[in-house]
Amino acid sequence: MSHRTASHSMVRADLPPAEAIRHGPRSSPADHCCPVLHVDMDAFYASVEVRERPELAGRPVVVAGGANPAGDRGVVLSASYQARAFGVRSAMPVAQARRLCPHAEFVPPHFPRYAEVSRAVMALFCEITPLVEPLSLDEAFLDVRGSVRRLGMSPAEIGEWIRGQVYDAHRLTCSVGVAPSKFLAKLASGRSKPDGLLVVPADGALEFLHPLPASALWGVGQRTAQALRRLGCVTVADVANTPLPALRRAVGLACAQQLHELANGRDERRVVPDLPEKSVGAEETFAQDVADRVVLRRELLRLADRATAALRGRGLRGRTVTLKIRYPDFTTITRSRTLPDPTDSLPRVFGVAIDLLDAHLPRGMAVRLLGVRVEQVARGTVAEQLTLDGVSGDVGANCTYANWADAERAADAARARFGCAAVRLAALLETPGRSGRGETSLSPESGNQIC
DNA sequence: TCTGGGGTCCTGAGCCGG
DNA sequence: TCTGCCGGCTCAGGACCC
Fold first, then answer.
1. What are the angstrom distances between the C-alpha of A367 and each of A94, A101, A119, A326?
2. How far is the CA of A174 from the C1' of C2 (A)?
3. For chain A, what percent of residues have pLDDT higher than 70?
4. Where is A148: in which H helix or E strand?
5. pLDDT value at A201 more than 90
6. d(CA A192, C1' B8) / Å
């Protein structure tokens, strides 16, 4: 692994080549009580882009997404370390990133590609242990308790082996935290970035943890950090030494309990593969605020289609439909309705969403963002509720939920085989010659019909 | 400075039934 | 029959994470 320079290790493992580690079991004295690994890909989206376009290597690269990444409304999804040197950070507005680093290469995200690379990397983790808990496309927790025994390698050696394998197979670097718990492992990987490995031994946990700022604790964002500051808590040690009742008054019951546990180095959470999903949704910020009711209905249909297709793709159904509206002044409301039975059907989800939109968006009011989310989801083993005549409602002229469901399954199959563009709702097709807010077959007069 | 899109979790109010 | 209490559910919103 001479191609990389590891850094920042609190207890640095010596770095033999991956194969040597595989066959040469050794152990680091510090990591024997550290069964949890947190693996975090370095600047993942940006690194994938650079790998696909070698001419970008060594340059500041910013992957920006959102409503209009070329304009003002996008945010930075990922920035290469060359861009970070200019102060560019994830979640930063694109306009600000452009000011900080005008010569950076701004590229749009390619999520299918990232997902593909992520699957391959996760598969590599699964070669080590079945206990892999992905947190997102670019990071995961691994419980290597069993692997230590099976492979005769220490956790740190496993971490280095993973780093070597990821680089050899994908030409991407990652950072690994090795610790007794998930929280410490995650902090450790963050501290070892980029391209490093850090072991936080069990008996050095508090020494590592306590000097960190309170905002390093999981669950402390801007608001909670502010509340903690008012309480005089600046560092993790301050939080650890604050009596629980005072903490409860400042940040609430559940939050106080969690922060107190973490600040004292206690984190009993297990690495759980295959956590069930709780909700599935889709949302979109418009390039310009939209007040046109026809356009809003069409966008809502598009979002409901995306959400229900995702539900069906994962074999899920949900009961609560939530509509999210963000107004131009950035105030955001959510309105929801719970159905008597779970569904993955576009007409039902869209029907509820459009009812909520009509009820809560005054005529003429512009919208910055619309979102549709289906909550209370579970595996879709129960058949869709039908009424006595076998039809639970109309979704349009000569179209019932029963035969609409058949059409949806057929469309899903076609999309799976030929791509997302293979089948589209007629209401979402633009009329040739019209652009942007073009005329569609969905009109205010058409009610909730979509077929 | 001006804020994406995918999520999870928590809190509190209000309603309803036992 | 009325009232109060309690638990469960729904709904809305906030905070947080990546």
1. 21, 31, 36, 6
2. 68
3. 76
4. helix A145-151
5. yes
6. 26
